[in-house]
Amino acid sequence: MLLIFGVNFTVHAEDYNSYLAGDKVPDALAYLPTPPDSMQIFGNGDYVRWIWGKSVRNTPRGEQASKDSKYGIIRMSAIYSEVLGIEISEENTPAIYRFMVNSGLTGATSVVTMKRAYFRKRPFMLMNEPLWSEWDTHEDLDNNSSYPSSHTSNGWGTALALAEMAPHLQDTILRLGLEYGVSRVIVGAHWQSDVDAAMLTSAAAIARAHATEKYIAHLNAAREEYAALKGMTLAEIASGDMPKADKILDAPYTCDTQPFYGDMSQYWKAKNERDGERGVKAIADANLADDAIVDGFAPCADIPISATEAPLITALLKALKERLILDSRALKDCWFRKRPYIQLEEPTSIPNEENLYHNDSSYPSMHATIGWGIALVLAEVMPDCQNALLKRGYDFGWSRVITGYNYNSDVQAGRVMAACLFAKYHNDPSFQSALDAAKQEYAQKKADQGIDDIICHSSNTPGYWYSLSGIIYHSRPTVPGIYIHNGEKVRIGY
After folding, report:
1. What sign does the CA torsion over 182, 188, 191, 194 have?
2. For residues 388 and 274, what is the distance between their CA atoms, to the nearest angstrom?
3. Cα torsion through 387, 389, 390, 396, rounded to 10
């Protein structure tokens, strides 16, 4: 037990585990594509980033990357002690330490299904090179799939959680979280697409963790501990601007740099998808009208979503979309990047909208930010629908590459910023209030849906009693509660 300014913080060893387990973990196989083939043209982006990584090894950034090969809480504590201005340790900051450990583990669990399903060779293996980094070993890496990156999922999960805990320092926290992933490219342990995928899986897992009481309790305890140690109020910690793209992301690739060839290979791949059903869906995804957004995500839910059937969820969805549009526009102010159809002088699959985006930066993709941001929030509201929602959110961004309005790196940047905005929004009381109302509405709709099923079943088998969880009793129950009997709800023992 630690006493800080009159506040008790008690952490037990059994508290160190992921916030999610089993089917509670979003399944990356359900919403991510298969790993790219590093030896095919569509792996160009990975290859040129590998070359770039090698070029910076003998620099301070390379030294940082080698240190970042240390996995987990030891390295995370070293990185973020300096940022937060406190010494992070199990003894000195038990609540923050626990929150970081568990958030990192939650991020790491998000890559397990994908790693088990596919084995992708790591760069140092495929290029027949020695291990370069300080902490990596052949025992750890040789038989462990490169896709997605476990280091990245652990580090980005930790960064997202800390950014929510201390949003006044969010830009620095998130930048270091991103760099921790990129370090895996520099040392040759991972391809860039491994890192990109892991940032999505860990964001999905942390979003889903918000639906657990344990994550919220640990977050609140870590906040209180941090506030006490810093002598700050919770309001002061929660203050500050929205995340800034130029403080978190790298600048967009320009056409005279090698990584641009990766964007070009993805552009040609996506262009081939314009014909057929996927191309039609990509055009439909361009529509950001309220009804189009609701209609686009409603099929992912297992309850009807509309203004009449689920008014609070629908209201949250519409308000969230408007907020993401506003914040996405601010993110674009950091850079101006020409869109593919302008730079390449090629037509899009939505020609009537080309003039609308002529002076609008391609980076980061607003549509990708909106789609992935909505998916993350709805995965918290409707956790049992998480995989379908995340698939919809992922595809929403890829649709912009198909139509020719964005490069793949624009879309990835938009998804990264959506996760950053997600962390910031959770410090807004008005957003949290709307979110809680939507969660309650969903829970009630699910419960009502279950009662309807039980009543139907009960009507067909008169004489039996049913609990609201569907347990059948052949005679009148003796335990107080609400039951279904002969198609009607009956209170017993009240």
Report:
1. negative
2. 22
3. 140
Amino acid type, 109: T
Rounded to two decimals, the pTM is: 0.89
pLDDT band for position 480 (cuts 50, 70, 90): confident
**Do the beta carbons of residue 390 and residue 418 sit within 8 Å?**
no
pLDDT digits over 16-30, tens only? Answer: 999 999 999 999 999
The terminus-to-terminus CA distance of the chain in angstroms comes to 43
How remote is the C-alpha of 293 from its chain's centroid?
19
Domain boundaries, the chain: 1-240, 254-427, 450-492
* Nearest alpha carbon to residue 207 among 440, 433, 425, 445: 425
CB 417 within 8 A of CB 248: yes
> Which backbone phi and psi does 178 adopt, to 5 degrees?
-65, -45
Mean pLDDT confidence for 75-79? 97
Report the SS3 class of residue 354.
helix
Is 1.20.1440.20 the CATH classification of the domain at 1-240?
no
HSE-up (13 A, CA, CB side) for residue 97: 20
Kindly indicate whether the domain formed by 254-427 is annotated with CATH number 3.40.50.300: no
- Gap between the Cα atoms of 93 and 228, Å rounded: 11
- Tell me if domain 1-240 and domain 254-427 are identical in fold: yes
Closest to 204 (Cα-Cα) out of 446, 411, 34, 388: 388
Query: CA-CA distance, 94 to 15, in Å (whole number)?
Result: 11
214 burial level (CB within 10 Å; 0-12, 13-18, 19+): middle
Cα separation, 248 vs 243, whole angstroms = 8
